[in-house]
From TrEMBL:
Name under which the protein is recorded: LysR substrate-binding domain-containing protein
Residues in HTH lysR-type domain copies: 14-71
Organism of origin: Paracraurococcus lichenis
Pfam families documented for this protein: HTH_1, LysR_substrate
Signal peptide: none
Family, as annotated: Belongs to the LysR transcriptional regulatory family.
Amino acid sequence: MPARQPPVPIRPHLPLNALRSFEAAGRRLSFTLAGEELGVSQVAISRQVKVLEQWLGAPLFIRSTREVQLTPEGARLLPQVRQALDMLALAAGQVSRRGRRNVLAIQAYTTFAQRWLIPRLARFHEQHPDIEVRLTASVSPVDFDHQDVDAAVRSGDGGGWPGLEADFLTPITLLPVVSPLVLKRRKGRLPAETLMGLTLLHSLARPNDWETWLRANDAEQVVDSRKGLKFESSALAFEAALQGSGVAMGVEVLVQSYLASGALVSPFGQPVRLPGGYYLVRPRHRPVSVAMRRFRDWILAELDTAAGTDG
């Protein structure tokens, strides 16, 4: 015999239109403004709120000629209704294709987006004009349960993301970079001496990179990794290096174009490869859309091409 299914919980027949009207009126503290927001009249909002009050058996608003105020019951109910409606909207948006093209929401680190992804996105659009990529940049951890994000570029060792699929993109290799004009002003001194005399440019998003590189190059006793100028992102540190403010710690894949053009140089010692690298991560439980599959194949191909060119 087939296993018995657990009983389906019985939910009360919620007046969803009334809850939506209540949320708008409670948030705006105005039946008129709530009506304008929802595209109905003030009278319709008032009627829906009365339906909800009768269903609950409790007053939700204190009405006067000039304004409305939430009752204690209304104030207690409002944030929970708002959260529930937000969750419904997010869930519907994740599966709905109504009224939109193939939309792909990608999140990446700020500098990775600026220095690597954005210069190449035009090629993806040329190959797949039917897919709209919506790119956001953030150093904060991605929350796939509460953010409208399909995939994200993150760094790690590939094993620290439970519930996520992770495709390895590229290693993270550290190397200091500096403007050649700075070296010229220092009249050709030896690389180690030059580094000792330069201002270190730090990225607050990658606070340990200088210490890691100096230790691997046996220079931590010579150069103080704590001193120097600090910037919010690596992109800002690179810009300061271009302006001659000092030497920044670069991630090789992000400074390749600077090195290729000669705008920055790296004469200071051995590059240091960190464990792991950059990964493209996405929720394991979600079906892989055609747009997601095409973007994944494209970004992997772009990185393979870049690696082949470097090699």
